[in-house]
Amino acid sequence: MRIKNINGTKDNICNCGSWLDHWEKFSGQPLSYCAVSGCNNLAEVGAHVQIDNPYNNNWYIVPLCQEHNKSKMILVISDSIVPVSANVSETCGKKSTW
């Protein structure tokens, strides 16, 4: 999957403590390495990204290393990585109905 990093999102917050915790909680996947294919660095941040698709403007969180989090290039991530919605009203900010 091809993604592009959204820079300038450091002021966005969620209820999970960190965006990396947010990704781990809602992806159901264990945290380990950077999502970029071929990168062997540990994931250090939950990065705000968009999928490289003109029909999808949604923001997602994926685990990236610091180096790839600063990238302005299109990145290819592993197909096994689940992008998690960065829209907290759909995830950790969702109001309980009971």
Question: How would you summarize this macromolecular structure in one to three sentences?
Answer:
The protein contains two helices and five strands; from the N terminus they run βαββαββ. By secondary structure, the protein is of the alpha+beta class.
Can you give a write-up of this model?
With 98 residues, the protein is of the alpha+beta class. The chain has two helices and five strands, in the order βαββαββ. It has one domain. The protein is globular, with a radius of gyration of 13 Å.
Q: Numbering strands along the chain, what is their spatial order in the largest sheet?
A: 4-1-2-3-5
Number of strands: 5
User: Residue share in helices?
Assistant: 10-25%
H-E order:
EHEEHEE
Q: What shape does the CA trace take?
A: globular
Radius of gyration: 13 Å
* Average pLDDT taken over every residue: 91
| Percent strand | 15-25%
Q: Write down the domain tally.
A: 1
* Residue windows where pLDDT falls under 50 for at least 5 positions: none
Biggest sheet layout: 5 strands, antiparallel
| SSE class | alpha+beta
From the N-terminal CA to the C-terminal CA, the straight-line distance is 37 Å
Number of helices: 2
